[in-house]
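Our consortium's second objective concerns turning raw sequence data into structural hypotheses that experimental partners can test. To show how far this objective has progressed, the report includes one record in full. It was chosen at random from the queue rather than selected for favorable results. The single chain below, 207 residues long, was entered without modification.
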Amino acid sequence: MSIGLIGRKLGVTQVFQGDGTMVAVSVLAIEPNTVTRLRTTERDGYTAVQLGTESAKRLTKPEAGQLKDLPKAAQALATIREFRVDSVDDYEVGQTVALGDVFAEGDLVDVTGVSKGKGFAGQIKRHNFKRGPKSHGSHNIRQPGSIGAAAYPARVFKGIRMSGHMGARQVTQRGLQIVDRDPERNLLLVKGPVPGGVNGIVIVRPE
């Protein structure tokens, strides 16, 4: 297991490769992450590196407690995430992990983010159901159809695809290729779309 980094989605654009082909890419801003805590098997039961990035105006007491081991100048990080690793020997609290330390051009990465919220949606939009006929007196134009039997079990089973809240959930896009990177400007360009809207927080891990 390898460490990843916390960043933000800036948007999408397109770049031309050496052979002249155009590729659609997502632009991710990944500022240097700070190691805020180390998890060890002896103390925590697993090994992981906790990273933080961006500055926060205020923190709750639990959030501040996670950062108490850092130098005072770094005790106000807004976003904190943990990454499982095989060993924490190469890391120490307060260390900075930059974009160029983890990713290289051509690498495959998994990008995790929160998808765009679509609000309340019906079965056709949410689950790609087909509509019923519009003619001959049909009353089943956009209805879901049967959702269960009557006498038994006399209830609706859990997991039946129905109307409800769509989007706004954690999604991981796997196997995206790094097309280019700019360590000086802390930018990473990955091929294809990544979850979430502009300025949304994303987690980038090596595949």
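The partners drew two points from this record. The longest helix spans residues 61-66. The mean pLDDT is 92. Both points have been shared with the crystallography group to help prioritize constructs.
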